[in-house]
Amino acid sequence: MIRIAVLVVLCAASIPAAVLDVRLYEHVELQSVHAILGDVAELSGDPIVAAQAATVVVQAMRDTAAYTIGERQIRPQLLRQFPGVDLVITGTCIARRQIVEYDEATVSAQAEAHLRGRASDASVTLTVIRCSGPVRALKEPDRPLRLVADPLNANLWGEVPYRVRLMRGDHEEARSLVVLRVSAIRQVSVAARDLPRGHVLELHDLRLDDVVLNRSSGAVATPITDLIGRALRTTTHQGQVLTLTRTRPPIIVRSGSQVMVAIARAGFEVSVMGQSMSEGAMGERIRVRQPNGALVQAVVTGPGSARVDQR
Q1: Residue pLDDT tens, the chain, 311 long
Q2: Which residues contact 261 (CB under 8 A, 6 or more apart)?
Q3: Position 197 in a domain
Q4: Residue 83, domain CATH
Q5: DSSP conformation letters of 185-225
Q6: Count of domains in the chain?
Q7: Which of 24, 104, 142, 173 is the most exposed place for a label (fewest CB within 10 A)?
Q8: Distance between CA 94 and CA 187 in Å, rounded?
Q9: Are 277 and 295 in contact (CB under 8 A)?
Q10: Could you tell me the CATH number of the domain that includes residue 215?
């Protein structure tokens, strides 16, 4: 019996242990949420052990971070599942999920394209003075990504900030801040000569000119045809930009002038001559003194005429 036991021990000692050689890759990019050993290393040695070890999960990868996978991480997991296996582990692997990245140039171009669309007919010169960085997200072929640019104020010139978001459906994956320096030129209506306050504009009073946009020029150009026949609110100098807000309908009733006032009463209308106590354009309200001395509010209906509704 003693001889048999010694023989068994000697035979067992002569059987070599299974060997698993793990050579970690330097860098890998993966689509899966979990990195298995077969993704991050070349396995050799005992083919049965190698096939089983290839499916061992060695790292959870739920974000865009880079993970370092090495011997200290792998050996305990393999020894628990393959006790007695002779392990040889070499190298270190940097593993990350596959990502989609839009660099700073692409992010900035999205903001530039949006601003040019807002500027419409303006000739715009753009300079990117700041971009907070690229945007990136995990690659998911069945859930595409898109860039969305949103202006953070209504300016079309000067320093214009943009928020550029990387969207997957309705979910924001990442964002970047882009600040543009904008010089915008637009063809606008300007005074062709010095013009006094109250002057009613005619075609020869106006011309088109290229103007660098600023806060006083206005964001929207006013066509010349919309200005003809309107009166200037203030004295205007040659080359000064003209907009609807700087003009008004022409005054057709002057203060102190005689006004025929139509007064509508229930079922009939009377007209009396009064004196205007203020000036007004078509559709504006004026004060009129009636022959009996009473003051009424009337709406200008034409040159020298107004109407009071008394219901």
Answers
A1: 555 544 444 444 445 679 999 999 999 999 888 999 999 999 999 999 999 999 999 999 888 889 999 999 999 999 999 998 999 999 999 999 998 999 999 999 999 999 988 877 667 788 999 999 999 998 888 889 999 999 999 888 889 999 999 999 999 999 999 999 988 777 889 999 999 998 999 999 999 988 776 655 555 568 899 999 999 999 999 999 898 889 988 888 999 999 999 888 777 788 899 999 998 888 899 999 988 888 999 999 999 999 987 65
A2: 271, 272, 273, 274, 288, 290, 296, 298, 305, 306, 307, 308
A3: yes
A4: 2.60.480.10
A5: EEEEEEESS-B-TTPBP-GGGEEEEEEE--TTT-SS---HH
A6: 4
A7: 142
A8: 57
A9: yes
A10: 3.90.1210.10
- What does the pLDDT read at residue 3? 53
The CA distance from 78 to 52, in Å, is 10
Residue with tokens 């600040």: 179
Looking at the structure, do residues 206 and 268 belong to the same domain, yes or no?
A: no
Handedness of CA 235, 239, 245, 247 (dihedral sign): positive
Give the three-state DSSP class for 111.
helix
Establish if 174 belongs to a structural domain. Answer: yes
Q: Which domain holds residue 283?
A: 251-309
Alpha carbons 58 and 40: distance in angstroms, whole number: 9
107 and 161 housed in the same domain: yes
Phi/psi at 165 (nearest 5 deg)? -110, 145
Q: Name the residue among 188, 124, 132 with its Cα closest to residue 157.
A: 124
Q: What is the pTM of this model?
A: 0.50
**83: which residues sit within 8 A by CB, 6+ positions away?**
none
Q: Out of 97, 115, 132, pick the residue that ends a domain.
A: 97
DSSP strand pairing (41-45 vs 19-24): antiparallel
Is 253 exposed, middle or buried, given 0-12, 13-18 or 19+ CB atoms closer than 10 A? buried
Domain co-membership, 240 together with 256: no
Cα–Cα distance, 204 to 100 (Å, whole number)? 59
Q: What value, to the nearest 5°, has the Cα angle with vertex 56 and ends 51 and 61? A: 135
Of the three residues 132, 159, 183, the one that is the final residue of a domain is 183
What single letter denotes the amino acid at residue 175?
R
